[in-house]
Amino acid sequence: MSTERDSETTFDEDFQPNDEVVPYSDDETEDELDDQGPAVEPEQNQVNKEAEENREPVRKECTWQVKANDRKYHEQPHFKNTKFFCIKESKYAYNAFTFLPMNLFEQFKRAANFYFLVLLILQTIPQISTLAWYTTLFPLLLVLGITAIKDLVDDVARHKMDREVNNRTCEVIKDGRFKVAKWKDVQVGDVIRLRKNDFVPADILLLSSSEPNSLCYVETAELDGETNLKFKMSLEITDQYLQREDALAAFDGFIECEEPNNRLDKFTGILSWRKTKFPLDADKILLRGCVIRNTDFCHGLVIFAGTFTIIVVLILLSAGLAIGHAYWEAQVGNYSWYLYDGEDATPSLRGFYNFWGYIIVLNTMVPISLYVSVEVIRLGQSHFINWDLQMYYAAKDTPAKARTTTLNEQLGQIHYIFSDKTGTLTQNIMTFKKCCINGQIYGDHRDASQHNHNKIEQVDFSWNTHADEKFAFYDHYLIEQIQSGKEPEVRQFFFLLAVCHTVMVDRIDGHLNYQAASPDEGALVNAARNFGFVFLARTQNTITISELGTERTYNVLAILDFNSDRKRMSIIVRTPEGNIKLYCKGADTVIYERLHRMNPTKQETQDALDVFANETLRTLCLCYKEIEEKEFAEWNKKFMAASVSSTNRDEALDKVYEEIEKDLILLGATAIEDKLQDGVPETISKLAKADIKIWVLTGDKKGSSLLHTRMENQRNRGGVYAKFVPPVQEPFFPSGGNRALIITGSWLNEILLEKKTKRSKILKLKFPRTEEERRMRTQSKRRLEAKKEQRQKNFVDLACECSAVICCRVTPKQKAMVVDLVKKYKKAITLAIGDGANDVNMIKTAHIGVGISGQEGMQAVMSSDYSFAQFRYLQRLLLVHGRWSYIRMCKFLRYFFYKNFAFTLVHFWYSFFNGYSAQTAYEDWFITLYNVLYSSLPVLLMGLLDQDVSDKLSLRFPGLYIVGQRDLLFNYKRFFVSLLHGILTSMILFFIPLGAYLQTVGQDGEAPSDYQSFAVTIASALVITVNFQIGLDTSYWTFVNAFSIFGSIALYFGIMFDFHSAGIHVLFPSTFQFTGTASNALRQPYIWLTIILTVAVCLLPVVAIRFLSMTIWPSESDKIQKHRKRLKAEEQWQRRQVFRRGVSSRRSAYAFSHQRGYADLISSGRSIRKKRSPLDAIVADGTAEYRRTGDS
């Protein structure tokens, strides 16, 4: 068995998935994979046959057509069924005229409502029913009315939300001019204008903008949760000719592109304009939901615009009693002249009638009020979540929101949480915390004399006019080193941070504003700025730095850009003195491989990296080298040749980069904190104590993943990467110890056999010719499916044995797949939480989806079941609201079944004394109002307000949550206990009054043993018993609970005396037939003693069992309740232990994760604002000019 399992999980050693690359796109087809490969783009003006053939694979995908400024073109039939992304269309169930009929139709499509409608129809048949029709009609109307009101409120809310979105405005060209239009009026082919901070209403092609060369900055938080800005750039042709309003109105371009899909990073299309074809890619597309930033205005063309049940018990009981009635009729009824009713029906026919009669009489085992009561409780619990001020985020004015009412109790049963990282666990705010320069660590609390102290005193940066006021640093000794200049490496360290980057800069109100491709890079440049090395400006081939107040301009000779394979970036500059230097920063793993062998601080820096890794800081190594003029000249020729290479350009450039990036001198390392949201460590700790496992599924690189150092530690010890799998019968790890699993998207595809392999065209056209071939192919397919399923199960089993699981570089589809696998093989309740559109699949796949609202966007929120602004609120949602909701619903269901079994089964016992004739043991009006008025309010309040312990104690003792995970409070055992309790109570309620009424005489000398007095006695004992029983079940007493219990009893007696009065009998003689029964029966002490005895026999055993249970076998909740006064009296809780970050023997990996492309952008000069003299003169001369005397 071991061999078989090992063979299933053996990988090709020659193939190693790239951990840094996101796997293929979610909906990439095998045809697309086959077509991948280098392709030479034909010249734009070439229209011959060869060019058309070269474009054929692209055009094959381009089935969507857009014609600019031509709405009639898109009124063709094949466009009619397309929902354009600019319009939010919801399914509105009703309008003002169709609400009542359609709502009733929808409600009666529900099995429960249709069931009671059938019962109501049966009750109108005299031969069947012994129960008045109104006993079912009134509760049914109440349920239908409450549900209709709820549906109406929901539909109105949807209308309001959609109107808010669709009524947003933008400027659209109409009649040759820009006019304000609503989003819902925007159509495909429209040319629109968007301004700064506007939401993009549809997927549009960027045509031009206010920025030089039509650059446009966008924030994609709505889509992927990342708040760092990304740039888009139009085609040069549209930037040149489509700036003016009249030119945009006359634009008649024709676009052929791919159909709308869910790929955020891929787009294929062709623009045909001015008799020329221009290729389009994702860099020229603004996606719906993005926000325009730092761009005054832009113009765009709209491309895409909008099993065992109680019913079985009921049937079995009814069938048994019907058979009993048929037998009784055959043996007794046919021979009793006084029972003759004028109909000569056979015993079998009478038994058939009585079967349906008992279906009607016993239907209250599952009353219709159960469904509406559950909905009311869930609605109330949802409002409690909405009203919880401790889940309200004042900084963003964002309250918690329950967007569903059906999942509250499942919040108390969560086993696995799947979380995004960026924007969900972190604030996506990078902070420069520490650094190591020349082997010396800086960043601790030290004064200028290098003495550590406990007093926290922030460094004063007032000497630096460009300093950021929000930047906080506490090591005064580093400032002393910079200002004194005793160690040149310190200044060179921060100079490297100021010069080696691809950050853009502009000025807003005289203040510098940096735009970085990643938060990491922005944090590093901002740190250099505060320490006196300020990045001021850049052009296509220069960069200007203020070095401790002195402005110096350097010639940029080359930018060696970052990519996921290189894991580093470099810049080559010429200093004003004419020297050529290379500055490089990157991951420690790649930098150490390229260092000169004579690096005296190499070991000290490595030790510092280990220290930073233990604190889970994101690290980066810095180094430099001086280059001789001759060496650079030779290298530059190779660089220019690779830059214009028409095939494999990226590979050629990487090869050239390798030649120059060697023999580097190590300066030190930086340590950045990816700042967690407030309360995240405490929340994770408490959820772990509640036995909830948290998996992090992120699209980020492995190096930037939260808790990465712990994962690397486990990897180095050889147990995490799933290259082998132990036998099925054995656990994957020995018992004891905490383990973590890290896996990338590429490895995930390998392990789960999800990788799409290339197949030859010949195989695709080959079909089985014989039955044997068909059988062999079928068997092969089945074996492959079985192997895949076993792989999936093995992965889930292995991952679930780990304390922490992190999946990096995974696509949205893979996130959903991981969640689905856990649902499938673990049968556990899952919760997914995220903040961006890339988390939507995961959120929808999990049983419960939670969206983080606020600055990261609303896409995830709109798809979620619950939303709030901070991850830390998750502990309150689960440990307080979830646990309470689960306990309340379980108590409610147990009690509801108990009280209805006790009520309904009295008819069963009564049938043995009435010839199984389906006669009722109560008055008809009592049956009608029992579940509506006499016993409804106390159980509703218990379902809404009850709590075993307070919210503070729930958070203090997370172990209380485990009862919900194990479903200990409502299962088959608990259900049958409630069933047995109800059966015993019904027997006591029937047989004690029956025995008391035999051979008795009242005070007036008359026997009180008539049917109506007997019914009143049982009903009175029942109402008192079930209401006192809920008092025993209530853990949290309030005035409202007490009032509801005693008020329900009082209401029963008040209504009963009213319904039994002579006055109402005169008005409705056929409906109210118990005239004077209550007053006659209840004035006799004997009847009251019977009622008291019945109630006592029902409740005293329950009290005794509860006392013994809490004394001998107390639950965790019972123990805490016993000591709650002492716990409440404590002035302060025990101080929370400081959350200690994980220790690792492996330094953290590369934290530099911006996208490739800024270097090409800078080198092209298209993103640089044209500067005026004297900078132009400086660039022309190729020299730097000192603004003031001084040397750094």
TrEMBL record:
Transmembrane segments: 108-125, 131-153, 301-328, 355-374, 892-913, 925-945, 975-999, 1011-1030, 1042-1066, 1086-1109
Domain P-type ATPase N-terminal: 66-137
Residue ranges with Basic and acidic residues bias: 49-59
Residues covered by the P-type ATPase C-terminal domain: 861-1115
UniProt GO cellular component terms: apical plasma membrane; cytosol; endoplasmic reticulum; nuclear body; phospholipid-translocating ATPase complex; stereocilium; trans-Golgi network
Entry-linked InterPro entries: ATPase_P-typ_cyto_dom_N, ATPase_P-typ_P_site, ATPase_P-typ_TM_dom_sf, ATPase_P-typ_transduc_dom_A_sf, ATPase_P-type_domA, HAD-like_sf, HAD_sf, P-type_ATPase_IV
Cofactor dependency: Mg(2+)
Location of the region described as Disordered in the Swiss-Prot/TrEMBL record: 1-59
Places the protein is found: Apical cell membrane; Cell membrane; Cell projection, Stereocilium; Endoplasmic reticulum
GO biological process: apical protein localization; bile acid and bile salt transport; bile acid metabolic process; Golgi organization; inner ear receptor cell development; negative regulation of DNA-templated transcription; regulation of chloride transport; regulation of microvillus assembly
Topology of the protein relative to the lipid bilayer: Multi-pass membrane protein
Listed SUPFAM superfamilies: Calcium ATPase, transduction domain A, Calcium ATPase, transmembrane domain M, HAD-like, Metal cation-transporting ATPase, ATP-binding domain N
PROSITE patterns registered for this protein in UniProt: ATPASE_E1_E2 (PS00154)
Keyword line: ATP-binding, Cell membrane, Cell projection, Endoplasmic reticulum, Golgi apparatus, Lipid transport, Magnesium, Membrane, Metal-binding, Nucleotide-binding, Translocase, Transmembrane, Transmembrane helix, Transport
EC number(s) given by UniProt: 7.6.2.1
Binding site for Mg(2+): D420, T422, D835, D839
GO molecular function: aminophospholipid flippase activity; ATP binding; ATP hydrolysis activity; cardiolipin binding; magnesium ion binding; phosphatidylcholine flippase activity; phosphatidylcholine floppase activity; phosphatidylserine floppase activity
Domain P-type ATPase A: 166-229
Record's compositionally biased regions (Acidic residues): 25-35
Catalytic reaction list: a 1,2-diacyl-sn-glycero-3-phospho-L-serine(out) + ATP + H2O = a 1,2-diacyl-sn-glycero-3-phospho-L-serine(in) + ADP + phosphate + H(+); a 1,2-diacyl-sn-glycero-3-phosphocholine(out) + ATP + H2O = a 1,2-diacyl-sn-glycero-3-phosphocholine(in) + ADP + phosphate + H(+); ATP + H2O + phospholipidSide 1 = ADP + phosphate + phospholipidSide 2
Assembly notes: Component of a P4-ATPase flippase complex which consists of a catalytic alpha subunit ATP8B1 and an accessory beta subunit TMEM30A. The flippase ATP8B1:TMEM30A complex can form an intermediate phosphoenzyme in vitro. Also interacts with beta subunit TMEM30B.
Family named by the database record: Belongs to the cation transport ATPase (P-type) (TC 3.A.3) family. Type IV subfamily.
PANTHER family according to UniProt: PHOSPHOLIPID-TRANSPORTING ATPASE IC, PROBABLE PHOSPHOLIPID-TRANSPORTING ATPASE
Protein name: Phospholipid-transporting ATPase
Source species taxonomy: Eukaryota, Metazoa, Chordata, Craniata, Vertebrata
Gene name of the encoded protein: ATP8B1
